[in-house]
Design brief:
The chain contains four helices and six strands; from the N terminus they run βααββββαβα. Helix content is 32%, strand content 26%. The strands form two sheets. Strands 2-5-1-6 form a four-stranded antiparallel β-sheet, with helices on one face. Strands 3-4 form a two-stranded antiparallel sheet. A hairpin with a 2-residue loop joins β3 and β4. By secondary structure, the protein is an alpha+beta fold. The protein has two domains: 111 residues, Dimeric alpha+beta barrel (Alpha-Beta Plaits), CATH 3.30.70.1060; 32 residues, no CATH class. This is YciI family protein. InterPro entries: Dimeric_a/b-barrel (IPR011008), YCII (IPR005545). Pfam families: YCII. Belongs to the YciI family.
Length: 145
């Protein structure tokens, strides 16, 4: 199963406080373990919400809202995408993770939808389109500069 592992933002991360060299090194070692175990699919840190925008939808209308966003506990400071056998395995990996923030922090784990989860609504044509798009994205993937 694939899961998204989200590091929740804190007041410090929203203020733009960067991780220490020690934390970056510890996270690098943890990411190395994830890669060696075949778990890590992707992972990135996010800039504070002050650099972000939200687009709100109301029927056909779109409204753009500039950051920062005030609900810090609901914001995401970074994420991983993992391939694991079970939610329990994901929890065990998170327990091994260095604390991503100084002081208290929280990491949320959520399973990704797989094609089978959509049932009959995902027609063979839609499934074929999804597979084609995934293959195209994979073919275009380039290492980050």
């Amino acid at each position: 199963m694939r899961v998204m592992v989200m590091v929740k933002a804190t007041r410090q991360s929203e203020a733009g406080q960067m991780p220490s060299t020690e934390l970056l090194a510890a996270m690098g070692r943890f990411n190395e373990e994830l890669v060696q175990a075949g778990v890590l699919l992707a992972g990135e840190g996010l800039h504070p919400s002050a650099r972000g925008k939200r687009v709100r939808f109301s029927g056909p209308q779109r409204a753009v809202v500039d950051g920062p966003f005030t609900e810090t506990k609901e914001l995401v400071a970074g994420f991983w995408l993992w391939q694991v056998a079970s939610m329990e395995e994901a929890v065990e990996w998170v327990k091994r993770c260095p604390n991503p923030m100084e002081g208290e922090s929280e990491i949320e784990i959520r399973p990704l939808f797989e094609a089978a989860d959509f049932g009959a609504e995902l027609t063979p044509e839609l499934q074929a389109q999804e597979e084609r798009l995934r293959a195209e994205v994979e073919a275009r993937a380039r290492p980050a500069p």
